Amino acid sequence: MAEPSRDPPSALSADFMSFSPGDTASRWLACADLQQEVYRHLAEYVPRILCQGGGMAEQREEQREELALQLLLLAPLEWLLLGGEPAAGLALLQQGGGAAALCGHVFKVGEPTYSCRECAADPTCVLCMQCFLASAHRHHRYRMTTSGGGGFCDCGDAEAWKTGPSCQNHTPADQNRESEEDPVSLLPPAVEERSSSIFSIILQYAVDLLTWEQEDQLPAGLEPLTPVAVPTARRAEITSKAFSAFRCPVLRLDVCSVIKALMSYRRLQTDFMEDDHDRLVSLFFFCCPNAVSLCPLPTPDPRPQNYERLQSDFVRDDHDRQFSITDLSVQIFTVPSLARMLMVEENLMMTIIRTFVDQLRHRDAQGRFQFDRYTAQQAFKFGRVQSLIGDLKYVLISPPPQWSQQLRTKFLDGFEAFLDLLRCMQGMDPVVRQVGQHIEMEPEWEAAFTLQMKLTHIITMMQEWCSTDVSRSVASVLQGELSPHLLIELPLRCLVLCAQVHAGMWRRNGFSLINQIYYYHNVKCRVEMFDKDLAMLQVGASMMDPNHFLMIVLSRFELFHTFSASDLRRRYREANKDLAQQNTLIEEMLHLIIMVVGERYVPGVGQVEPLDEVRREILHQLCIRPMAHSELVKALPENGNKETGLERVIDSVASFRKPGVTGRGLYELRPEWSKRFDLYFHHYSRADQSKAEEAQRKLRRQNGEDTALPPPRPPPLCPLFASLANLLQCDALLALEGAVLQWAVEPSGGGWTESMLQRVLHLVAMALLEEQQQLDSSGGDEDVSFTFSSRITRPGEAPSTSGSVLALLESLQNAPHLEVHKDMITWILKVVGNIKTTRERTTGCSVGVSHGRRPEETVRDKDKAERKRKAEMARLRREKVMAQMSEMQKHFINENKELFQQSMEDLEAAAAEHSPPSSEPTCAAQICVGPRRVGGAERRQLVTCILCQEEQEVRGHGRAMVLAAFIQRSTVLSKNRSRGVPDPERLDPLFMHPDLSVGVHTASCGHIMHATCWQRYFEAVQQKEQRRQQRLRGHTSYDVESGEFLCPLCECLSNTVIPLLPHACSPDRSVEHPCLETWLKRTNQQAAALDSTHRKQSHGQSPAGGGAISWRSGVQVAAAAQQAEPAGPDRVGFDPQNSFSSGVAEMINTFGMSAYKVGLKVNPNEQDPRVPVLSWSTCAYTMQSIERLLMDEKKPLFGSLPCRQDECLSSLTRFSSACWTTAPIRTVQNHFIRLLSVLVPDSQLEAPCILDVDMFHLLVYSVLSYSSLHGLDQSGRSSVDSGHLHLLQLVTVAHLVQVLLTFTTGELSMDQDGEESEEERLTCQLYGRLRDHLGRCLPDVSCGWRLWRCVRAGVLPFLRTAALFFHYMNSASPPADLLGTGPGQWEALCSYLSLPSNLLLLYQNHRTLLEPLIHRWCCHPGVGQVLHGGGVLVQFPRESNRLIDLPEDYSILINQASSFTCPRSGGDKSRAPTLCLVCGCMLCSQSYCCQTEVEGEDVGACTAHTFTCGAGIGLFLRVRESQVLFVAGKTKGCFYPPPYLDDYGETDPGLKRGNPLHLCSERYQKIERLWRQHGIAEVIGHAQEANQTLVAIDWQHL
């Protein structure tokens, strides 16, 4: 029942008819108090329009509401503002104002937005598509995303762009005009006056209503005539709708921009947060105090408390941020001038930070944040507080180009507040090692890491601000003196903790600590965690004595006693750790020393540029394996603008390898950069290091180099960090290296690892490279203070009695247990020799070059001699073994000569039996149909069952063998998708229309099984699925209830099996074959006799028994028909010879019933006479689809099919030729009689005209059913071959007539030069006869060349499919010309089909016989009806179906989808617009509004569309997700890579990366080929089988 306060729709409709916006505006202009009149109008109409609420017709109600808003509210305001008709007024303003300086386009949901990665001030600065295409940014690196709705185009905003702020459309025509010119001055005075008045009234209306808190009444002047209670939330919606109505695209007043930013969002129209409405104006005037001068309204105090209050209310509430006014901060704080003004005048930076800190009140006793015991409520609150960090990021995103003293002071205040925030974070949530027992509950750790990740970019931005001006002032804030010990203490603790976790010493602390260690090194956190800790260690080490630093490191790792004890066993007893933990700690400590000394690719530490660091990161990622662009981006840290610097250096480091049809484009490291590989790169994880090491060693082996992986030559250190190099030659490190080398000399000790030794060798190599670099860069030996080579040559102070480090290395060089490190040790010794030579040269020693290089040459000669000796020994062993095997083989053959002789004879016989026919036979011998055909009766077919592996010969009376197959309905060849789906119970499939609207296709994977093996396998699958029903989810890749299963070998989706039958017999050349006239006369007599007999039997039998005829009756009828006597069924009778065993016959029935069920979508019924027709139909349709593929791909007709398709066609055709034997013979005979009536029209039988019949289907049906007239035994097949040939000739002539009847004069425009050929002359004669029969309704064509070209092109597909059909049915080898694509195809094809190359001779040679038939064909009423537009006219050749054309630029597609509205939601934008790739229809997917009932079940728009467009198979492109969706039926589907790639050869699902996408034609062709090959269902099956997730996707709802 309707509420009393609501006006009925009829009353409002009456207002539509009587309301005049022009009269209303005139009345307002004439009144004394404009505000009172406007308020009275709003009070009358706003409640009536917007307070109707929902109802049964909610969709219709919303449409009515939008229309009423436009007519009753917006139109009068437009008339008032412009002083007349709005369209004319706007045109005049546009003429006077020129191009607008600002775009201000409001983005719709899903509309594409563009952000220039080179010129945008921050990532929030975007352009609409029109502005982007007209700007210079289209040639830059840009990011493309889709809008969530409500944003604005920033074109024309100089603060949003570093360069090119305006596009060509918004660049002022007068370039000399001052940019600061007030746009209001361009308005006519009257318009300016009215604008000021109306803006003030509208804004006042918004303030009055939004700040009104009483529920029982409204502000003065706004009381409606009929009392209406307006809830607060609804009030915000009403005000927003009424207020957002006024948008003038011409007037660019500042207040309009701010009001639109605050009020025009659709998201403010619903779900307005509690208490937000009364603070909207506070936020407005807090952020824009200048609005007071534009709109003289009462304003609240602009105090920072407004911001704190809004944020506090948002944190307490539970609405999403997009529904809160706080979300508007991105529109305000990203304006640099406005943000700095707020920072100066309102101390915005400190306000944001203090508000954030105040919200996190959960602290420990030291005032540090405490997250480890957060409750669910506190965690939820923390998630909402994080939005404040986003506001701070917006404020700091653009450093100021100029500083003022006020800005500097306020920034320092905010910086100090930020330091207070960092103090609260320092030491938060400390961890203590669990020793006794495991922790009871995992502590909360994600909040602390989330906070750190959120602040990462803030810290970087703070540094950028400080670097521009206030670095010295910041130093005054950082009071106090820091000693090196304090600098390294906390970083060293973290790194020792990581080492101990890797050693397994913190296992009782649970997984939370492991996760923290992972994120500590992860690319998202390492910039401000691991990297800064390492940098702090480098700072401390550069300020300390190197031995002192190493002593502290040894102490923190608790390894001091390990290296100080002289006894190897004693050091482990004192350490109180097991052996594995101790070794891991030593490895980690050595790795830390490598990082402290070697990581110099940070500006300020090493003499490098910022891009060198990025280049090194890329280099080491590509050393693992070639990577895609997206993988490299994920491995690099991003800055505040989401940039990594990858594009600036990638081309110098790597070469790009374009992707193929599958896969992604990959970057491969250039060979010259592999020498800079560092095995101990500090950002490698253990897994990455292992992969990189293996890959680089493999590469070096392929290049014929040794497998040593020495460190690269490091860049020089900056002066402040120059002392870091002394760590490599200090006494403490030399002692560590000597100890590890000494342990390696004694392999039986077990107190060392190869990783430990590898790190020591790496440190030694680093030291040698450092010394060599200093020698090369210095002027002489006296300038080099780094003397590592001389320090390792004298005995060190290691805890052993051995000699120097160099002596230990020489002793380890040829150690058998260190073979893997031999190349590295050799490289070290070579470098030592080079350094000594260099020093000797610089000191002036007269030492010859040969003497100076003696150590290197000695080492090299020893190594080369050793390798040569091993290679020679291996060669001798191989030769000896091969000689022994050869001798044994000869001995075995001599002892078994007879056996081998017999085997060779058998192989030769088998090869001769199975040898293919000669590739160059005479053309006369290669005929596939008719009495002169060459059969394959002598061919034997041996196959192997994939289940039992038993070999079996294919025989009609043998054990049944089957081929796994999949049958599906198809519209791939359809020329009329609009044809409605007929009732399957009444559908007559005997006559296929030439539009091929729906067909039945059969495919196979080519795997063969015994019928009994397959039945057992399928029963096992059924039992397994019955048990599976009790689990959480069902198996979605196949439906057992529909007969589906997966091939046991390849897991290809199947739903039936095709029985394998023997090849056709050779024709009997001893019998006389009748000519066409004789055969047609006899066949007509037989058909008439059979029809008469069937009619008599039908009248003499009851309805229950009239459905079938027995074999004996069929024999009698056939015998009587052959004598042309309508004799009864009891005259002559004998039992026919059964050609197949019971098992084979059962499989024939199985496949026939599968084709019947799928083709008609009905339940099984073996008595239905349409069963054999569906078997023939799938054979014909499959042939046609494969022929089209071969033609379009320009492949030969024979010899180019894959084995699986070739085997499928062969088995399918032989099955179709034999399936009539298991059907009632009377049914098959009736089918032939009806089919013959199309070629030989009979007044007693109703048959379609030749324009409504597909001739190839007619040929296949006629040939396969013709055997029922003679198919009793071999002796009765005397004229079958002649019948097949004559049927082909008749159907070919009918197709010639069909092509000429559908000929159009516009097909060919060229004329022939020269004399008219015989083909052209005969074609003109036949066409003239057709015009005579049809009363001149055909166009007059005088050019025979055109007609013959049309006939030849139109008949060619029919001849090709006919050749395929008879080739597989009669097992006839094709001629050599048809195995290629060269010239002579037409002549070879006609010869192969036993037809003349001039097909018109068929008509000319049998003109007396065919002329009456042609006359009857043309006189059929359906022909004239179709030619006059009364039916579907299909022209020949039929053009192959293709998927729709897609735009090259993906943004064009996004823009098209953004304007698509849901057809059932009253104009609302569709959230998931989906494009059908088959027909081009745009659908509203994944939405309940567009669900449709299909077969008693509600399905989504895509699923419903597949049944009308693709017979259950659908291909869709989800535009906003950039995903291709495959759908099969109602329960199956999968996502497929889209054909759109970025410049790096990658797809972008969900448009997350935002790179420009362009169409890849090769990938789109692959999708099209899958569709045309009917492989969509197979792809879906494989995808669902590979992705068995716990949560299944409801494909039917898409």
List the helices and strands and how they pair.
Layout: H1 9-18, H2 21-30, H3 34-50, H4 58-82, H5 86-97, E1 112-116, H6 129-133, E2 142-146, H7 189-210, H8 232-244, H9 254-263, H10 280-287, H11 291-294, H12 305-316, H13 329-333, H14 336-346, H15 348-359, H16 376-385, H17 387-396, H18 405-425, H19 446-477, H20 484-502, H21 511-521, H22 530-542, H23 546-556, H24 560-564, H25 568-575, H26 579-598, H27 610-622, H28 629-635, H29 646-653, E3 654-657, E4 666-669, H30 686-702, H31 731-745, H32 754-777, H33 788-791, H34 805-812, H35 822-842, H36 849-852, H37 854-895, H38 897-914, E5 942-944, E6 951-953, E7 961-970, E8 999-1010, H39 1011-1028, E9 1045-1046, E10 1053-1054, E11 1056-1059, H40 1076-1100, H41 1111-1122, H42 1142-1160, H43 1171-1192, H44 1203-1218, H45 1225-1239, H46 1255-1266, H47 1280-1301, H48 1318-1333, H49 1344-1370, H50 1385-1392, H51 1400-1405, H52 1407-1418, H53 1421-1427, H54 1450-1458, E12 1473-1476, E13 1482-1484, E14 1492-1494, E15 1497-1499, H55 1501-1509, E16 1513-1518, E17 1523-1528, E18 1532-1536, E19 1540-1541, E20 1558-1559, H56 1561-1572, H57 1576-1586
Antiparallel strand pairs: 1-2, 3-4, 5-6, 7-8, 7-11, 9-10, 12-13, 12-16, 14-15, 16-17, 17-18, 19-20
Helix pairs in contact: 2-4, 3-4, 3-7, 4-7, 7-8, 12-15, 12-16, 14-15, 15-17, 15-18, 17-19, 18-19, 20-22, 20-26, 26-32, 27-29, 31-32, 31-34, 32-35, 35-37, 40-41, 40-45, 42-43, 43-44, 43-46, 43-49, 44-49, 45-46, 46-47, 46-49, 47-49, 48-49, 49-50
Protein described:
Mean pLDDT is 80; it is low at 1-10, 53-59, 229-302, 796-802, 845-857, 909-924, 1101-1136 and 1271-1277. The protein has 57 helices and 20 strands. Helices cover 50% and strands 6% of the residues. The protein starts with 8 loop residues before the first helix and ends in a 12-residue tail after the last helix. Helix 43 crosses helix 49, helix 46 (1255-1266) runs parallel beside helix 49 (1344-1370) and helix 47 packs antiparallel against helix 49 (1344-1370). With 1598 residues, the protein is mainly alpha-helical. The radius of gyration is 44 Å and the shape is globular. It has a 5-stranded antiparallel beta sheet.
